[in-house]
Structure to design on (384 residues):
């Protein structure tokens, strides 16, 4: 036989209990995580016992009460000032999904709020936007959202775990600047943008853009950011001669055909000096071969060093050529290395000259031998 409490509950539900005007409270939780179910109540019920139950809410279906606020994986707290009691369910499993009831215990007729708990996996997302950038530069991550969320809290976090994203947010729309991170919300375009400056390889990884929803799980979009060390298409070594002209060839991506082309000098690409405004440096663009030529007139010893060819002043693409230029000075005798490792004095001694020296020495030796033989012959004749 059904108990009086069950009969009263069925009667209450069939009459919609009159006092439960909030409708169904939809709550979403993440598997293996915890969820909070918060239910409000009217003024005057502060001292009444509150509870959470499941199914038909019979005696065995009551999970937790404010009289015994901690039980197994359930914990309940009653904020009497805000008139909201919150039940926390930890270690969520698939069997925890379903219908619950927030109850306020009264004589004969309890007050109920229906709760529907949905569980989802704690990972995101089906679609991931991939972004590639390089060390030392900035990146803007664009996060679109729907119109109804234009006043909602926006945020971004690292990783791909939605359940802890807000707690571990790098920055939010309430706190728009945090170190290298800045968040700007464009409500007209329905997107917020997170700018990250001074990128390093440690910034590589997954990011979640989040939009908070009050009565359901937050909305997320995923981004995979890859930060690579700056590198070039190729690195070449080039030799030149003091006083002579030199031509350097620099390839560039076809989409950069209308960009300004430049050659800069320096050990690091982000601190090099543009040389194309120097009088001895002339740039000629060869669009058909997607390359440009830099002609240097009358090389100087000081021209030796590291050069970078570029076609994008932001160094955004990374499609550049690094060149190590060594400058030599021509001479005619021997070889002498100077203190400047890029500058050498070269002495040229031809094989013909060496051969002439050898023949001359042999000739002198032959002449002295013949004279010696003649002198010996005269001495012998005189003695006879």
């Amino acid at each position: 036989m059904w108990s009086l409490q069950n009969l009263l509950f069925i009667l209450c539900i069939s009459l919609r209990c009159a006092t439960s005007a909030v409708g169904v409270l939809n709550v979403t939780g993440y598997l293996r995580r915890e969820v909070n179910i918060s239910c409000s109540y009217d003024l005057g019920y502060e001292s009444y016992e509150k509870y959470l139950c499941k199914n038909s809410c019979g005696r065995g279906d009551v999970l937790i009460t404010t009289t015994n606020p901690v039980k197994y994986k359930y914990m309940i707290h009653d904020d009497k000032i805000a008139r909201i009691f919150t039940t926390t369910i930890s270690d969520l499993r698939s069997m925890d999904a379903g219908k619950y009831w927030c109850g306020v215990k009264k004589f004969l007729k309890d007050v109920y709020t229906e709760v529907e708990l949905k569980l989802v996996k704690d990972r995101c997302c089906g679609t991931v936007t991939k972004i590639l950038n390089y060390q030392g530069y900035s990146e803007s991550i664009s996060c679109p959202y729907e119109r109804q969320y234009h006043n909602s809290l926006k945020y971004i976090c690292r990783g791909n775990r939605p359940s802890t994203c807000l707690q571990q947010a790098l920055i939010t729309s309430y706190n728009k600047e945090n170190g290298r991170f800045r968040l700007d919300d464009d409500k007209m375009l329905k997107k917020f943008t997170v700018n990250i400056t001074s990128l390093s390889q440690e910034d590589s990884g997954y990011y979640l853009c989040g939009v908070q929803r009050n009565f359901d799980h937050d909305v997320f979009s995923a981004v995979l950011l890859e930060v690579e060390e700056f590198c070039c298409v190729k690195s070449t070594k080039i030799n030149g001669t003091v006083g002579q002209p030199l031509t350097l060839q620099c390839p560039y991506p076809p989409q950069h055909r209308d960009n300004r082309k430049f050659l800069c000098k320096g050990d690091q690409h982000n601190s090099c000096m543009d040389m194309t405004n120097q009088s001895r440096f002339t740039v000629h663009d060869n669009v058909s071969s997607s390359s440009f030529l830099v002609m240097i007139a009358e090389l100087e010893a000081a021209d030796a060093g590291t050069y970078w060819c570029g076609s994008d002043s932001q160094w955004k693409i990374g499609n550049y050529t690094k060149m190590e230029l060594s400058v030599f000075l021509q001479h005619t005798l021997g070889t002498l290395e100077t203190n400047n490792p890029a500058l050498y004095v070269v002495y040229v001694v031809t094989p013909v000259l060496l051969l002439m020296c050898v023949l001359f020495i042999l000739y002198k030796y032959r002449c002295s031998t013949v004279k010696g033989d003649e002198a010996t012959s005269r001495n012998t004749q005189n003695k006879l």
User: Anything to note?
Assistant: Residues 144 and 191 are 4 Å apart (CA to CA). The chain has three domains: 23-120, 128-230, 233-328.
